[in-house]
Design a protein that fits this description.
CATH class of the largest domain: Mainly Beta
Number of helices: 12
CATH superfamily of the largest domain: Hypothetical protein
Distance between the termini: 45 Å
Oligomer: single chain
Radius of gyration: 24 Å
Largest sheet: 7 strands, mixed
InterPro entries: DUF1802, Papain-like_cys_pep_sf
CATH topology of the largest domain: Archaeosine Trna-guanine Transglycosylase, Chain: A, domain 4
Number of strands: 11
Structural class: alpha+beta
Shape: elongated
Pfam families: DUF1802
Length: 389
Amino acid sequence: MTTNATCQLALKEWAITVRALADGDQIMMLRKGGISEDSKDFRVVHPEFLLYPTYLHQREDLLKESHQPTLRQLLSDNPADDDAVTFTHWARVHELLEIDQLGKVEDLAPHHIWTDGYAQSRLHWKPMVPLTIMLLRVYRMEAPVTVAFIPEYGGCKSWVDVIPTVNLGQLTPVVDDATFAHMVEAVRGSLGLERRYRLLLPERNALNAESAFALIRDMPYQRASSRHPEAIIREWRGTCSGKHYLLDEIFRELGHDSRVIMCTHRFTLENTTHFPSELQNLIAGNSVPDVHTYLRVETPSGWMTVDATWPSSAAPLGMPVNQTFKAGHDMAIACNPIDYYPVPEGQDPQTFKEQIIADFCGPSSQVREQFIEGMSRWLSESTGRHTLR
């Protein structure tokens, strides 16, 4: 990849892990946060960054035997964390996953260089906080860049701003596209994510973009206990957020680039004439502000808008259902958008949405909650609940 880009942000990681990423031995990092983090928890502050190799706390007994000789080689010159820092690789976050079960950590064992005990210790530290798994696409920089160490780089923190800004030059992926896709699929498969989606359809080979859209679209419109994809599947219900967070994950698994989009809009008497009177009464001659979620998805025929909010069973109620998936052709958005907000790469979409709701809905947030709850109840009672086979 040819680029004239520069980068100033770096993520600190053990030198042995940076070597494994650079050699294509693994594509993941496990994170919960450093002791000196401002928030005490790990956050992906930007989806693209330099890999900053560190040397403190590295031990052979924390690594699988296959990578212990590499660590001895790295430590042979007695490097220190306050030496000059040399950057050789740059990374982009491909996907963020969170796990909070020991069994899931054990399932990841074939995909990293650490011992089972060390990987499990990352889960047990701060046990109330899920373990973040970053799947990274790593690139070799055109030439190594060395910068002087300054005290601001020190301490147990994850992110540092590098001075001066680093020129990346021509970037070369450490593994080719096919190998990277296979490694991602292997990690997801070990965590049961691929199987989780495949079980949604009676025929394994029937899962494609079109069938996935129809499946999620016809999921009952009703709030689940959580908007997390696991809860959406388990309870088999969701509103615009939960449906599209799940559909985004499925599209990505199928190899489509997918983006979660938020848009502001208002429920008014004019656009809710088919709604029951109790919902129209909440509008009370004014309007109810809301933030809607949908997707932009890349297909072989180009990018398209995908909106799976309303199930087919809601069409008789006057809801604008998208009945067909035609690659490259935009679907109708389930509202009348005012402003659009793509979710930044690496940022939690629900956290992002809640901030927009706070800014846009303000003091009307409580009325919005009543309206969404009432609409969910109306659609659920009018269309009937469906059970996943």
